[in-house]
Specification:
By secondary structure, the chain is an alpha+beta fold. The chain has helices at 76-81, 83-90, 109-115, 200-207, 222-245, 255-264, and strands spanning 14-17, 43-50, 73-74, 96-104, 132-138, 142-150, 159-164, 169-172, 178-182, 189-197. It is built from 6 helices and 10 strands; from the N terminus they run E-E-E-H-H-E-H-E-E-E-E-E-E-H-H-H. The structure holds fe (ii) ion. Fe (ii) ion binds next to loops.
């Protein structure tokens, strides 16, 4: 048996839909309660839906009882502060797992390449049900920032860079694609991230918004890129050496490390 997946993701693993007119809404994210849970210091999260409605952002599988990234429970305090963001998350009508606003501090292209990771959205997800994908609705106007996607983590030729102006809306198979955001601004970036179950509801929401499964990649200077790749590789090698010295498994197949990277470098 396999999972229910939407065909529009077959080609690239991502889809860009019509932008939302962010200017018509209040800046609710400015008043949300953010938690530092397991944060690297570069990101904070404001949960709108968590595993059991508490003000925390842990993976649903880390709770008792453990659950997959579905049936998120709304966090009353933040929902009261951000009713419009909550409505937007609920708009597709698909089953929602984790739903939160991320605050990302400025970083470099090399940081983002180093942070490339895949999510673990479908842990404990029963086969035969809908595959979990994630929607990213950019809240702040970060025209010079990009969502970096790679099919192969180590192959720049597989990279797509999607610009993130206010209102940009992407749905990503984040368990298939390596992803991270390069945010070169001077202020934090805010983005609404929601886990959805693939199925007819999400399909209808995407289909009604002129979906594009292949978009032009934002340009990057080749020499600049090569320097960034070298810096990211050096940082990765140093991390793996440090982990090996501690006796830890440095590979990304290590569940603990993968989970930690997901938190530290969430897009
Ligand atoms: Fe992620």
């Amino acid at each position: 048996m396999s999972y229910v997946k939407l065909p529009i993701f077959d080609q690239t693993g991502y889809v860009v839909v019509d932008s939302y007119d962010q200017s018509r809404d209040a800046r609710e994210w400015e008043n949300l309660v953010y938690v530092d849970w397991k944060s690297s210091g570069d990101t904070r999260f404001a949960p709108l839906a968590s595993a059991y409605g508490d003000m925390e952002c842990d993976g649903f599988w880390n709770h008792t009882p453990a659950k997959t990234d579905k049936d998120g429970v709304w966090v009353p305090e933040n929902v009261a502060i951000a009713p419009r963001l909550t409505e937007r998350a609920q708009e597709p009508g698909a089953n929602i797992g984790r739903c939160r606003v991320i605050e990302l501090q400025p970083n470099t292209y090399a940081d983002a390449i180093y942070n490339l990771h895949r999510d673990d959205n479908n842990r404990l997800n029963p086969e035969g049900t809908g595959w979990i994908v994630r929607a990213f609705c950019n809240l702040t106007n970060n025209q010079d920032s990009v969502m970096i996607l790679r099919e192969d983590k180590d192959d720049p030729a597989t990279e797509t860079r999607i610009p993130l102006p206010a209102g940009a809306q992407l749905v990503l198979d984040t368990q298939r694609l390596y992803h991270a955001v390069w945010h070169p601004g001077s202020e934090p970036r805010y983005c609404l991230i929601t886990s959805y179950e693939s199925g007819p509801e999400l399909d209808a929401w995407i289909s009604a918004r002129h979906p594009a499964a292949l978009v032009p990649s934002a340009p990057v200077d080749p020499d600049f890129a090569q320097e960034a790749y070298a810096a990211a590789n050096a940082k990765r090698a140093a991390r793996e050496a440090a982990l090996a010295a501690q006796g830890a498994d440095p590979t990304f197949g290590n569940g603990t490390l993968s989970a930690a990277m997901e938190v530290l470098s969430e897009a």
